[in-house]
Amino acid sequence: MSYSPSDRRTQIEQLYRTYGHVVMGRCIYLLRNDSEAQDAAQDVFVKVMNSYDRFRMESSPITWILKIATNHCLNVLAARRAPWHAKYRRHAQNVETQRLTERIAPERTSMIRAMLEKVDTETQQIAIHYYVDEMTQSEIATILNRSLPTIRKRLAKFKRVADRELSHDAS
């Protein structure tokens, strides 16, 4: 589907006005750093703008945009773990620790992040879509182009990791 530059710009501006706050919320939830989340949200809409002509309307725009946002944030999180990133990470952790102590239930946030880090990227995406976005397994299968049994297996894997982490924390 091809749009004139002005139509395309109008469409993307409308998407930003409608869903910008949702994307920002997703980025804050995953990155837990307001500054990084703002940068990530902007990056997401750049990606939306660059790939808008390829959006086939097979899913709702918010589903498509949240998929882009989730993938982008998970890539940012993966980059945080890169060896070259260690010096920056130490500084960011000091700042983030201070911010988390100001938020409600910081131990819960840390626990969720720890659980997500113990599974692969695709399982992270599925768990976030299921538990955070409250999507159905069928919706997740559609947007990730995976089979329903694969989605079920990945959710079961995440649940096993979560149960193990929770029982470990309780003891």
Describe the protein's architecture and organization.
The protein has two domains: 1-103, RNA polymerase sigma factor, region 2, helix turn helix motif (Rna Polymerase Sigma Factor, Chain: A, Orthogonal Bundle); 105-171, Arc Repressor Mutant, subunit A (Orthogonal Bundle), CATH 1.10.10.10. By secondary structure, it is mostly helical. Helix content is 80%, strand content 0%. The chain contains eight helices and no strands. Helix 7 packs across helix 8. It is globular.
Descriptors for this entry?
single chain; globular; Arc Repressor Mutant, subunit A; Rna Polymerase Sigma Factor, Chain: A; 171 residues; 2 domains; mainly alpha
Provide the fold topology.
Layout: H1 5-31, H2 34-51, H3 61-80, H4 86-102, H5 106-117, H6 121-132, H7 137-144, H8 148-170
Write a concise synopsis of the structure shown:
The chain is mainly α and 171 residues long.
Total number of beta strands? 0
Number of helices: 8
Number of domains: 2
CATH architecture name of the largest domain: Orthogonal Bundle
- The level 1 CATH classification of the largest domain is Mainly Alpha
How much of the sequence is in beta strands? under 5%
Helix content: over 70%
Rg computed from alpha carbons, rounded to a whole number of angstroms = 17 Å
What's the end-to-end separation, in Å? 56 Å
Mind describing the biggest β-sheet? Answer: none
Classified in CATH, the superfamily of the largest domain is RNA polymerase sigma factor, region 2, helix turn helix motif
Sum up the overall morphology in one term.
globular
Topology as a string of helices (H) and strands (E): HHHHHHHH
CATH topology of the largest domain: Rna Polymerase Sigma Factor, Chain: A
**Which residue ranges are poorly predicted, with pLDDT under 50 across at least 5 consecutive positions?**
100-104
Mean pLDDT: 79
Q: Determine the structural class based on helices, strands and strand pairing.
A: mainly alpha
